[in-house]
Design brief:
167 residues, mainly beta, 4-stranded mixed β-sheet, 4-stranded antiparallel β-sheet, 16 strands, rod-shaped
């Protein structure tokens, strides 16, 4: 004769929470023993995500976090930390007849920076280099948004003398 035995299936609660600037959904869910649970993890702009908690370690692919196989009630914690800004070096130079200071600056990606441009007496400055075009107002040169290591070059040219003819 045949005997059927029913094996109970355990269901566990997985609770999600966050630390920092971002969201995780859903806030909780039920998972059957041996299955995984999936959550949508969305960091705020400029933040990165790391995962922790008491559930078996899982994988984060894009914004989808999937736990390891659930074996009991557990937690998933999404921690959001500020992404360090990428920095670049801007190097200034001149061919003479004036100065540009400072000589180098470290700048966050997407930011601008300024240099003081001082022509020698009787000279005028024009700006060039490999950085995105900027603006020279008086003696202050402001670069365009920095997207990589680049250079700023101040070229100083003699202002032509004005000659007056008296008749």
């Amino acid at each position: 004769f045949n005997v059927l035995k029913t094996i109970p299936v355990s269901s566990y609660t997985v609770i999600a929470s966050t630390v920092g600037n971002g969201t995780i959904t859903p806030a909780s869910q039920e998972a059957t023993s041996g299955t995984t649970a999936a959550f949508t993890v969305t960091p705020n702009s400029g933040y990165t995500t790391s995962m922790g908690g008491t559930c078996p370690a899982g994988t984060l692919v894009g914004t989808l976090y999937t736990t390891g196989n659930i074996t009991g009630d557990c937690t998933v914690i999404a921690t959001f930390t500020l992404t360090p800004a990428e920095t670049y070096t801007v190097t200034a130079s001149t061919g003479g007849n004036g100065t540009i200071t400072p000589g180098t600056q470290t700048v966050n990606s997407g930011s601008t920076t300024t240099f003081t441009v001082t022509p020698a007496t009787g000279y005028t400055a024009t700006m060039g280099g490999t950085c995105l075009a900027g603006t020279l107002v008086g003696t202050l040169y402001t670069t365009g948004n920095i997207t990589g290591n680049c250079s700023v070059t101040a070229t100083f040219t003699l202002i032509p003398a004005v000659v007056y003819t008296v008749t």
